[in-house]
Amino acid sequence: MVVMGYSLRDMQNNVPNLNLPWNEPYPDHSTIHKAFQKLDADYLDLILEKAAYLCIRETSWKKGVLGVDSSGVETDRYETSERPNIKKGLFESVRMQIYLKYHIVAILDYLIILKAKITSERCHDSPVLASLLKHFRKMKGSIFNADKGYDAEANFKRVFELLMVPNIKQRLARKGPRGAGRRRLRYRSRAAGIFDEGTYHYRGMIESIFGAEETDGHLSTRFRITENQERWGKILAIGWNLKVLNRLESAKILGIRIAPTIRN
Question: Is the pTM value of this prediction over 0.70?
Answer without folding.
Answer: yes
